[in-house]
Amino acid sequence: MRKLVRKELPSKEELAAKFDHLPWVQQLVLVLLYDWRFRLALLALTMVAVGFALVLLPVWRSTPPGFEPVHRVKMIDFWQARALRRTALAEIAAGRTRDGITTMRSAVSNNPGDLALVREFVDMMRQYGDPRHHTAMAVQNGLWLVQLSRTNLTELELVAGLFDRFLLDDFVVALLEPVEDKLSPALETAYAKALFMSRNPSRFAARWARLQARGIATDDPRLKLVHSAYMAGWTDGESAEAGQRALDDAKENAGSALLANRLQLIVSERRRDLVTYGRALENLIQMGATSLGDHLVYWQLLADSGQKDKAIELVRSNVYEPRTGDEAITLARVHYEFGLPEEARQVLYKYARHFAVADHLWLSLGNLLTTRGEWQSLGQIALEMRDESNPSRAELLCLSLYFEGLSELKQHRESTAEEAFQKAAQAPCENETILLKIASGMSEAGYPGPAQQLLLKNQRIAENNAEYWTLLGKVSYELRDLPTLAYAAAKTHSMRPNDPAAIQNHAAALLSMRSMPQEAIALTLELYRRQPNNPPAILNHAAALAQNRRLSDALRLLRSLDVSRLDESDRTTYYFVLTEILVEQGDYAKAEEAAKSVDRQFLFAPEIAWFDNALKRIQTKGENQASQTTDH
User: Fold this and answer.
1) What is the CATH number of the domain that holds 142?
2) Which residues span the domain enclosing 169?
3) pLDDT (tens digit, 9 = 90+) per residue, 203-258?
4) To 5 degrees, how large is the angle CA 176–CA 179–CA 183?
5) How far is residue 322 CA from its own chain's centroid?
6) Could you tell me which residue, 62 or 281, shows the higher pLDDT?
7) Is 175 among the domain residues?
């Protein structure tokens, strides 16, 4: 049996001797080995360092389990958030609600992933928030709570209540629309009410009918009052009168007066009734429950009734601040329509810098400068949009480069314009409206290449929008990119199966590919039956007939057209199809004559290949016929 030999540990001197080549390390080891006080001090320092790291480094998970992205905070942030929360609650209890909300906001900033803390803050704003000062804060934290809670119905009810109190009906609709089939009774009421308040009466009526059929929520007094407003504004006769009486009665009740007067604004706007609108607005002013949007409608009603001077006076003396970017855009539009373009520009510029998410404001400002031909100013704001001081510069990069390119182009600096457009094409664009605006603008400016690159790079942003595929098809046509054009045309047609333009573009793409004649003729026949006198429909159907070897029918359709009235592109299509018919019929002399009128710039690659082969056939057959004539 083998004996285990126990190896002796090295002595302190032997251990220190291992560091003979590093004298300072050797001295440190000796002190550590022989001085217990040094060891204790070193241990204490290590513990202090670890403690500081745990307190001062962001290593503690703040967001709920499973939430992505994970947000981590420092331990000191937890402590500060708790202390600030206690202070905020004390300020609210003392009646200093504005201070309390500001303090609670700081608490949430220290620990933004704490679901309970964010929920408490949102509820605090719902109860005590002031729409004149806290709207942006309400929107930001309300949406953050929904995201944190993964669209939990309880949190949705809280956030919908917050947005309702802040008169943010469009936000309520946007919040609940994605889950409209899974709403609780309370949310059903909130959603239906918000649909009407956001000026969607037809959708409200459809929702009301659905709720009635299911026996849900229609006995809610608020929702019944909203339905009365719908009757007053969107029905006639006794029904409208009954609806108006219900509104008038509700105005006399303290519990329903606020909602009744807000509903009266919508009904009066629908009727273009300046007098009743003005009364309801005055009532709401006394309640402290108006928004800039309410006044904007009143000013427009004044102008429409011939009191434009009074409307302009009220616009100039306006003290109401826009609470959202959309209100700022509407305010600028009213200034512009009232003949105050410089004031409109100032409004857009001011609030583009004010709101955190302001890409649509910058877009409106750029559109205004473009309309006025202020190209140098357009270039200046393009630079400002991506300045280091702008916190939204990353989101605005694509739009700013587009504005820069347009500014350079209009100042006849084509090379720098193209460079800016190319950079814009490589930049991310997360806003669907802006994406389509930029791509359309570059195409109209004569740069379909960058426009196509931009659309393809950001396809996921707008791929469910038929306008995206229509625009992609347009720029692909300009580039003679048939594969992309055909795919875009097919997508557009699938989204708009009954749209004549979508049918025609899909059919034209298939005909240009020359590979699916049977599919093409099904589309051209449908369009021809709808529009038997439309030249493009006739030409496409004639082309499909020719590709399906129904030559006499195709020729008959062509002869029904007046060639002199066709544009260059359609004229090329006419003679291209005629050439095909004549070649297949063996009439090479007439085919050669028709081919002379075909302009290749309007043809795609498969058409050019077929056309070149047809010309070879014409030449070969012509030479053979000439040879046979000589032999005889």
Assistant:
1) 1.25.40.10
2) 72-203
3) 999 999 998 888 776 788 999 999 999 999 999 999 999 999 999 999 999 999 99
4) 80
5) 21
6) 281
7) yes
Mean pLDDT of 195-207: 96
Answer whether 141's CB lies under 8 Å from 118's CB.
Answer: yes
Number of domains in the chain: 1
Cα four-point dihedral sign 16, 22, 27, 33: negative
Query: Does the residue 215 lie in any domain?
Result: no
C-alpha 166 chain-centroid distance: 23
CA 276 to chain centre: 36
Are the CB atoms for 381 and 365 separated by under 8 Å? Answer: yes
pLDDT at 560: 95
**Minimum mean pLDDT among 38-52, 90-104, 293-307, 518-532: which range?**
38-52
| 300: confidence class by pLDDT, cuts 50, 70, 90 | very high
Query: What 8-state DSSP symbol labels residue 446?
Result: T
User: Does residue 426 lie in a domain region?
Assistant: no
End-to-end CA distance of the chain: 120
Round to whole Å and give the CA distance between 183 and 217. 11
CA 201 to chain centre: 23
Which string of DSSP letters, residue by residue, matches 159-171? HHHHHHHTT-HHH
| 3-class secondary structure, 22 | coil
Give the pLDDT confidence of 402-436 residue by residue, as tens digits. 999 999 999 999 999 999 999 999 999 999 999 99
Helix locations, 94-220, DSSP H: 97-110, 115-128, 131-148, 153-165, 169-176, 185-197, 201-214
- The secondary structure element, H or E, covering residue 60 is strand 60-61
**How far is it, in rounded angstroms, from Cα 568 to Cα 576?**
12
> Predicted confidence band at 625 (pLDDT cuts at 50, 70, 90)?
low
Spell out the long-range contacts of 499-502 with Cβ–Cβ below 8 A and sequence spacing 24 or more.
500/527, 500/530, 500/531, 500/537, 502/466, 502/470
Residues 316, 296 contacting (CB under 8 angstroms): no
Model-level pTM?
A: 0.77
Instruction: Answer whether 397's CB lies under 8 Å from 386's CB.
Output: yes
Q: What is the pLDDT of residue 631?
A: 52
Query: Is the CA virtual torsion 420, 422, 423, 429 positive or negative?
Result: positive
Q: Is residue 128 one of the residues assigned to a domain?
A: yes
* Phi and psi, residue 134, nearest 5°: -115, 15
DSSP letter assigned to residue 357 = S
SS3 state at 597: coil
